[in-house]
Amino acid sequence: MLKFAKILTVKVKIKNTSDLPLPAYQTEMSAGADLCANIDSPVTIEPLERVLIPTGLFMELPENYEAQIRPRSGLAFKHGITVLNSPGTIDADYRGEIKVLLVNLSSQSFTLQPGDRMAQMVIARCEQAEWQSETELSETKRGEGGYGHTGVK
Fold this sequence. Notes:
The protein has 153 residues and is mostly beta strands. The chain has one helix at 73-79, and strands spanning 13-16, 33-36, 43-45, 50-54, 57-60, 65-71, 81-83, 88-90, 99-104, 110-112, 117-125. It is globular and about 55 Å long.
């Protein structure tokens, strides 16, 4: 029988100004908590259109943490709806409303209903770099290879 490690948690202060539920994890080991659309009426997103959708949520992340806003895979696959700046980053010192920048990459209109789960939020630990200016970098086998240098097969 497989045993899984306990999921690590971090306490995040959150203020909900909507009538919608707090972000929720849909399964026991989900990495992302779903965010709901805090809109009064349906919003139709036309092909290649982008819209900023409010959540009614405000939060206070601990230092050294960020929130990443990511697409929901089902919306992306079935309807071409994704988060435009994916993953969108919410910094620990941001106190404004969480909003989600959605884009419709399909050829058909998509209508978002009030309360729909539209994106997911992942809370992640992060670090800032201490930059060290150098004139030379170490050699590697890969070197400067990038953008498809390994091919597709």
